[in-house]
Amino acid sequence: MRPLRVTGDVGGLPDHAFGPASLGWWGTVGFMLIEGMAFVLAAGAYVYLMSNETSWPPGGRPPSLLYGTLFTVIAVLSEIPNVWVSRRTHAADVRGIRIGLWLMVAIGLGLMIVRGFEFDALGVKWNDNAYGSIIWALMLMHSVHIATDIYDSIVLAAIATLQVPDARKRSDVADNVMYWHFVVITWLGVYVLVYLVPRYVA
Q1: In the chain, which stretches have pLDDT less than 50?
Q2: What is the pLDDT at residue 193?
Q3: Of 4, 108, 147, 150, which residue has the fewest beta carbons closer than 10 angstroms?
Q4: Neighbours of 56 (CB within 10 A)
């Protein structure tokens, strides 16, 4: 008896997908889980170091709220154009995708400028004591993630500007939007540790 062989033409199936049906989506989620755990470990180190000090920050004052709060406000508000980019992506609105991506690049660069003022206003250097080391580590970790998203956004914006982005590239833009959600959410946790805990908990 000859084995039954079932074949079919899959040429008409889409070569892209959005969300969980996309391999790139799972890669982005995996990366966020790994990096999220790094933030959790850093937060654990922060709490451990704080528990071994009689005052926090030791022998100093908490960082100024000005630049950290300004950064937070801009970051939270950036979710408005970020979500708009997502909607333009799913609607295959090429012009909207181009405008949105370059706008997100500008916002990211603006945030990095504010971050530079933040470091200057921390009131402690990374090598002054354990407190300085851990808050600089938290801030640097988050800064790297902003830089990563800026780079990704520049690449996607350049591609979308030079050519009409196909469905696969639009799927990449959607994943980039999701990663920016991660950047904003992790910053809220870092903001609490760096700016609020020394004032209201320690």
Answers
A1: 13
A2: 96
A3: 4
A4: 18
Phi, psi (degrees; rounded to nearest 5) at 33: -65, -45
Q: Could you please report the per-residue DSSP string of 60-127?
A: S-PPPHHHHHHHHHHHHHTHHHHHHHHHHHHTT-HHHHHHHHHHHHHHHHHHHHHHHHHHHHSSS-TT
142 touches 186 (CB < 8 A):
yes
d(CA 78, CA 44): 28
- Residue 63 backbone phi and psi in degrees, to 5: -60, 150
Cα 66 to the center of its chain, rounded Å:
21
- Between helix 167-191 and helix 65-77 the angle, nearest 10°, is 150
Buried b (16+ CB within 10 A) or exposed e, 158-174: ebbeeeebeeebbbbbb
Q: Tell me how far apart the alpha carbons of residues 192 and 63 are, in angstroms, rounded to a whole number.
A: 12
Between CA 141 and CA 38 the distance in angstroms is 9
- What is residue 160's predicted lDDT score, i.e. its pLDDT? 92
First CA to last CA across the chain, in angstroms?
A: 78
Token pair for 137: 């580590």
Concatenated DSSP letters for 10-29? -TTS-S--SGGGSHHHHHHH
